[in-house]
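In practice, a research group might receive sequence data for several interacting partners and want a quick structural hypothesis before committing to experiments. The following worked case mirrors that situation: the sequences arrive first, and a predicted assembly follows.
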Amino acid sequence: MNRGPLIFLGIFFALAFSWTGVVLTNQIQYGSLTPYYDQNEGKTYPEKPSGQAERGRLVYQDLGCLYCHSQQVRRPGFGADTERGWGDRQSVARDYVYEKRVFLGTMRTGPDLRNIGARQPSADWHYLHLYDPRLTSPGSIMAPFAFLYEYRPILGERSPKALKLPAEYAKLHRLDRPGYELVPTPRAEALVAYLLSLKDTYEFPEAKPYVAPKAGGSGK
Amino acid sequence: MANAPSLAASLNPGTPTDAVARAELSEIDASAKWPVIVFLLSGLAWLLIGTVFALISSIKLHTPEFLGDYEWLTFGRTRTAHLNSVVYGWSTNVAFAVAFWLMARLSRARLRHGGLLIVAACFWNLGVTIGIVGILAGDSTSIEWLEIPPYATPLLFVAYALVGVWAVITFRFRQSEHIYVSQWYLLAALFWFPWLYSVAQIMLIFEPARGTVQALVNWWFAHNVLGLWFTPIGLAAVYYFIPKVLGKPIHSYYLSVLGFWSLAIFYNWAGVHHLIGGPVPAWVISAGIAASLMMVIPVVVTAINHHLTMVGSFSALRYSPTLRFVVFGAVNYTLVSLTGSAMAIRGFNEITHFTHFTVAHAHQGMYAFFTMVMFGAVYYILPRLLLKEWPSATLIRTHFWATAIGITVYWIDLSIGGWIQGTEMNNASIPFIDVVQHTIPWLFVRSVAGIVITIGHLAFAVNVGWMLLARRPAGVTAPTLFHTPPAMPTTVVR
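A structural hypothesis for the assembly, expressed as tokens:
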């Protein structure tokens, strides 16, 4: 039986079907979604990331952070994302319009980071956590990123960004040499700037914080 | 342009047809020898490299300080290097090798322009090598399944273009009028892969789509690489080797047609189930879930066809290495696909999404199904190309049991661990760090399973190396079997 051309047509249309449906239709439907102008505040949301945060995004990308951390908050009632405090509201497509590469992620070996900038606004905390995650989060299995730091002699004044290590930890790891300091490299600084920029703390008409209906109330 | 009659037929037209057919097959095998061997050996090298990265990544998840001071060996990079070496290095190379050999045999045509394929192999492996080095150096794109940096992808494109040209030529000059179901799968896979890959490259890397459209393109691509590239080639091999080794026809021709077209239609929508609950249009997720559930049809149909062909011939599993690997793979195809459909159901997905359950599922698909079928195929093909038998049945046995037990433990262990992780993660009263801590024992067992699998890979590599170096014996040899069958049937069981 020779039905080569017919088989080929079938094979072609099978994939053309989902290419049209999944890729093309969605590109047409919301591939040119725009930011939202909030008239009350006179600003558009989401905000454009700063240059340093944008460089930090590249560090996040080259270290492969997304393999353990998602960046999406699911709606209340589906999973426990809001109960865990990962965000006040569900993430929506408009939140991502400025992201050159979208890191939704598919794994939560570690917690979701969509709002890490709001949940943990301290840069010092992030510097310690990235240097050795066990310093701030005992029991964590996150990879250490000590290679993003430099142990160097203090030149002039101590850097304001120098890590404030617990004395015992510094002694144990021989990081207590007098006249020396442990400072983040520009890549670590960019990465922390990026993490701090991750916060969807604004509202869209289509995405407002969920208010649980009062027990016994009308549900409104 | 028709094929010249085979050598045996032209020397003596009176040769019995059976002998002519055998001579024709060995001529086809001889023509396929070098291209197939080049792809197989490069695949094997990548398998070993990928295994090393797998072990490093696995250990890092329960002992994060392990090799923690080296930036190029941080988890995010070794895990990515593992995925890309086993997907584009091992799996794609071996898929090419098996596809070319099957295509030549089923078209009953000598493999022409083998040089084209060897050039393609050089480009492909150069591309993958540059890609993996790039990932370790920090140039990963961090797009799942597409991490190879953009400067390496043109090499992969050139390689693929050469393969495509070759496939069209071979199919065009086929001698067999009948197109066997394996050829359908092979042709479809060879056509689908470049389409998927080029759309994904363009819409994600060269001219990125806006916002979460990227996520849809990403999962349309990544899931279809499994379903429309590796699965068809794995199934083509199963459809060829089970009947071939047993010497009996496939259970039902009609079912194989139904299985093929239902896979072609439903699978390609299914990838969206990776985004359930995510910030993409709800309708497309619902469509993805529906397609994932419809996948039960091709899976059950194919399962009936494969497993009913086996019924009555289970004793052959005692003897034939090829059959044992291929049947292990076919059984896992059924299991992994049904699990996959279940994982697309919202209530199930709410628990398993974002957990190690998905990792277990991915390894069952790519390893317990695809890789095991490919191992079986290699055990059949390589002796016919080298005209030598496998030097050691003990090493084959070690390979089979280490990989079969290893991947089964891996799958059960991480499925349970992932399920616990998912249920705990959905219970906000359990602190997140406790959820993390409770995964550690399961991750540790996974590393042990990984070491067992590694032993299997080493046995395989040693056996292949030994076979290549061994002197070709004079005269007729018997195939290497696990046991000597009581009375050898007329069909040669290998």
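Before designing any experiment, note the following. The radius of gyration of chain A is 23 Å. Strands of chain A lie at 36-38, 43-45, 149-153, 180-184.
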